[in-house]
Structure formats: C-alpha cells, structure tokens
Automatic annotation (TrEMBL):
Protein's name in the database: SAM-dependent methyltransferase
Naturally occurring in which organism (per UniProt): Saccharopolyspora cebuensis
UniProt keyword Ligase present: no
Classification of source organism: Bacteria, Bacillati, Actinomycetota, Actinomycetes, Pseudonocardiales
InterPro entries xrefs: SAM-dependent_MTases_sf (IPR029063), SAM_dep_MeTrfase_SAV2177_type (IPR006764)
GO biological process: methylation
Length: 84
C-alpha cells in the first residue's frame, strides 16, 4: 500500500502549506508534493491493482460517499501494488 500527498487539485493552497511546513523542516524532513504521474512513475517496478493511483476514498470504496464528498479534498493519492 502506498500513499503520497499531491498538489494536483489545489496547487496554490498546497504550495502555501508546503512552504509553511518546510520553513521549519530540515532538507531531510522537507515535505514534497508529487503529481499522479510522478507517483505512478515511482511505482514503475510494481504491478498496480485496480483502480490504480486514485484519491484514497476512490480506492475500492465499500459504500457510496456521503453527500457533498469531494475526494480531491484529501490532497493524497493512494495505490496498492505487488512487486514484479
């Protein structure tokens, strides 16, 4: 299982959050956002299970989301994969 923060859906807000977080972080602890494409590239040595790289609430949900739910608000992508 893999998850990673993204700025794909709200780039200005997430860039601001990263700047605030990284102002007090060392280079080693710096927050890094990645796009869906970059995350998919990180998982290149794995076979992704369907539905692939999606927002966490879209990964095989057990039930319909509550009214007004917007999966983009997580600012994360999730995936499950197996090694090749």
């Amino acid at each position: 299982m893999f998850s990673h923060m993204t700025g794909d859906d709200f780039p200005d807000e997430m860039d601001q959050a990263v700047a605030i977080f990284n102002a007090d972080a060392s280079d080693r602890d710096a927050m890094v956002l990645r796009s869906r494409s970059e995350i998919t590239d990180l998982l290149a040595g794995f076979d992704l299970l369907a539905p692939g790289v999606v927002h966490p609430s879209q990964w095989r949900p057990d039930s319909a989301p509550p009214p007004g739910h917007d999966p983009r608000n997580s600012n994360f992508y999730a995936a499950v994969a197996t090694p090749r």
